[in-house]
Amino acid sequence: MESKVVLVTGSSRGIGRAIVTDFARKGYNVVINYIKEDSQAKELKERLEKKYHIKALIIRADVSDENEVQKMIDTIINKFGRIDVLVNNAGIAIDKEFEDRTVEDWKRTLSVNLIAPFIVSKYVGNEMLKNKYGRIINISSTNGINAFFPTSIDYDASKAGLINLTHNLAIQFAPYINVNCVAPGWVNTDMNKELPKDLIEEETNKIYKKRFAEPSEIAKVVTFLASDDADFINDEIIKVDGGY
Ligand code: NAD
User: Fold this and answer.
1) 162-167: long-range contacts at Cβ-Cβ below 8 A with a sequence spacing of 24 or more?
2) Which residues are catalytic?
3) 0.90 cut: is pTM over it?
4) Which of 7, 12, 84, 220 is least enclosed by beta carbons within 10 angstroms?
5) Cα 191 to ligand 1 centre (Å)
6) Atom of ligand 1 nearest to the CA of 213
7) How many A from CA of 214 to the centre of ligand 1?
8) pLDDT digits (tens), the chain, 244 positions
9) Which atom number of ligand 1 is nearest to the Cα of residue 116?
């Protein structure tokens, strides 16, 4: 049987990188999308192809730009002929005090974290429907379930919106495409590397497991949701936060 094809947005580093790696480990051909990290994406492609004997394609595209998304999907279809799994992982967090937060910050955050998953799902969903098969997994956040910090007010709203988008996409693409959502809590990635030490300590204490997650622990849940074993899991939101 031909290998399945997965597109993971924002996958040159962090959680996306771990997700794409776990799919490659499971024999999928992978598409690594990124916006800035050219050399990291190239290095990842070479490493995955060599280690797992799969095909990897790297595509630089801003997922909040509809034209770039269209071109990216065309490139994938030309190369692989189909897309079986989409992981809407790319995301940004602008850390600012409530008073300093601008309308421009809101627009940028919503466009990458919420509107981009809609754009990519629309184009990829249409491709999946041709094969009457697909899996879409959105990476939200526990910040989208509970309000945590007014310093990430637009991020939290974007992640809450992504949960709602999951519900609507699951209805739109039924019965062929399962649409699910993973909501991580704190994860050890570059996104959190600038956080003050005392905040990290305070937050670690609130987590029942007393540590942040590793990206691979999020990835394993995502690849499970894409697997045949998860065929009857649809329109579900799974928190992966170690208890909080
Ligand atoms: P990260 O900053 O390390 O990686 C984000 C990736 O998205 C980067 O590769 C970046 O280049 C890419 N990206 C950003 N804007 C893009 C765009 N417009 N087009 C294409 N790619 C773009 O962050 P991470 O911690 O790995 O986060 C991955 C996802 O997980 C995000 O959606 C984030 O909100 C979510 N998340 C992270 C945490 C955490 O604690 N790190 C917790 C919950 C949810």
Assistant:
1) 162/88, 162/113, 162/114, 162/117, 162/138, 163/138, 163/237, 165/114, 165/117, 165/118, 165/121, 165/138, 166/138, 166/140, 166/235, 166/237, 167/235
2) 155
3) yes
4) 220
5) 7
6) 40
7) 14
8) 789 999 999 999 999 999 999 999 999 999 999 999 899 999 999 999 999 999 999 999 999 999 999 999 999 999 999 999 999 999 999 988 999 999 999 999 999 999 999 999 999 999 999 999 999 999 999 999 987 777 899 999 999 999 999 999 999 999 999 999 999 999 999 888 888 999 999 999 999 999 999 999 999 999 999 999 999 999 999 999 999 9
9) 18
Domains and CATH numbers, the chain: 5-188+214-237 (3.40.50.720)
Candidate of 7, 8, 9, 35 to mutate for ligand 1, largest count of ligand atoms within 8 Å of Cβ: 35
CA of 92 relative to ligand 1 center, distance in Å: 6
